[in-house]
Structures are given as C-alpha cells and as structure tokens.
Amino acid sequence: MNKFIHLFFITIPCFILLLACETQNIEPEPVDTGTKVTFDIANCRKFVQRNNNNEGEIFITGSTNASFTSAKIKFKNFLGGQETGWLPLTNDGGNKFSGSFVLKGGGYYPQVIIENANQVIEDTLMLWNFKVGEIFAVVGHSLAEGQDPYNIDNFDKQWCEVITWESGRNAFWGRLGDILKTRLNVPIRIYNTGIGGSTSLQWGNSAVGLPFESPIFDWKLRYPYQFFENRILADFPKSGLRGVLVMHGENDINLTQDEIVEGTKLYMKKTRDLLNMPDLTFFVAKCNRGSDNEKEVKVRAAQKRILNEIPYTIVGADLESLTEPTFRHDGTHFNFKGIEFAANKWGEALLDSYFTSVKPLLRTK
Fold this sequence. Notes:
single chain; Rossmann fold; 2 domains; 14-stranded mixed beta sheet
C-alpha cells in the first residue's frame, strides 16, 4: 500500500506540470535544421513616420531556405516603444512570408519563429531594426547641405539616420537627430536634400520649369528642384514625413522680396501637389547673416512675408542669431561651433507640441 501511495504522489505533480505547460503555451525547443531567415530589405518598410497617436505601420517581407507551414514575429523594444506579443506572419508560398504591423513609436528588433508541422525549425533575433518615429526633409543651400570639414559625424547612427545625396554630407543634421531622439524617445530620420549655391527663386522656378540664370543649374533639366523631386517620388510615400525644414536666405540677397516670396510659394505648392497633401508643413528658418545690411534686412522681411502669406508654414530655427566671426568662418558658412549651435537652434524651434498637432504625411506605399 505504501508503494502505491508513493507512486500516487509522484505521478500527480508530473501530470499537473504537463497541464501547466499546455495552458501557458510554452514553445517547443527549436531544432537546428540549418534553416535561415532573410528579410527583403528593399521591399520592407522599416522606418515610418508615426501619426499623432504615436503609431506607425511597418511592413515586412522575407523568405526562408526551407519549406514551412507557419511563421510568427515579435517586436522587441530597444528604444521608447512597446514590445509586442507573437504576431502571425502570412505564408505567401514559395518559402516567403510577409506582414503589416502597427507599432508604437520606438525602435525595435524583430524575433522570428519559423515552424513546420508544429516543429520550430528556426528561432532568431534579426539584425535589422525597425523604426517608428519622426522623419523630416531639408530644402536649402550650402548651409543646409554642409561643407567639409564642417560636418558632425559622431551621432547615434543606430537610431538617427541622415539620408544624403551620393557623396553627400551630414552637416549638423545627425546632431539634430540626437537632440530629438533624446527628447522624444523615438528614432529620427532626416533627408538632407540641401543643395549648395541655390536660391529660393531657383528652387521655385525649377519646380515648375520656368527659366532662370545660373552658372550651376540647368533650368531646362529643372535643377535644383529635380533632385528634391526624386526624393519626393521615390522615398517619401514609402516612409512618410512630418514636415520640411527650409534653409534659404544667404544666397537670396540679390533677389527682390517678391522674387523670394513667389519662388518659395512655387516650390512649396509643387511639393504639396506631388504628395497630394495641401497642408504639408514647412518650417522656415530665420536664415541670413544677421547684419543690418540693407540686403539682409530685405531677406528678413521676405521671410516674415512667407510665414504670413503661405499657409501651413511655421517659423523654424533662429539662425540669424549665429553671426560672424563666432559662428561663421567666412561670414556666411558655419564653423564647428556654428554647426553645433545650428542643430540646437533647430531643436529649440521644433516644439514638443508640434509632434502631436502638425499633421504628418503617412506612408502610402
């Protein structure tokens, strides 16, 4: 009898333990089958603009080197976001999978489990991160584009991205990314589409194909705006955009007030038309040398008119306070101290309230 009692007290706990495992849906141990998971990065949407409710929809597509019956994904939070539970991926056939997922603003690394006939054949934390945060584009001249050696390259490249032209420069935009990332606790992307030597009138006329004189740009090819338009068509519908940061002024001193204002109206309207977003916001910097010279005063007056006459414009960074010789090495372009202060001035101009009130362009592709 004692043997039966002893056996009873051994068997019952084991049975309860098995029931507990089933109830908690404990995952089976993966078996090393040589299965590999790959994301099709070119067709993923791995950095998207968040909406004013702090959410954004990313898209994942990828494949494995083995047949599978089911796949699931979990987004592990590494910056300011909210970790998800396990979410199903769609089996697209041919060893391919995909899925769209709404995530809170933040930075994530995805964990993927691949199963075949209820057997885990791969469980891996992917090396590619996914980001839901804030995205800006830049319109402007050489102060926006950046000049060697006056660039800031030591910023957090894991969670702050500066997208430049081929062989382009970071200028101070990576530092602005750091400032906003720290303050908002979300990833930051900035498309540096500034082009040295350009004016407000050249941007406006080239946007709509009107002639202008320039030793640098061919108006018949619609440059300089065509560079920016390429980004508008290729990138912004895939990522979204909070707004456009405008830095024009120093090169506008030989234009009239009307030329500055009307040129600005042209490229802003063209941008909004291309994106089908008439209320896209432009943040217009006080961008000039800050002197009392008559030409500089004219530029400042034109910039005030832009803010008064063009809807959905907001005053941007106070860069006219960064004067020579402290902040400008040649009277016009920023030195190392100048680019640090320029980043801070943009950070001050982008108020916290804008990130819940300014309507963003959300991903459409």
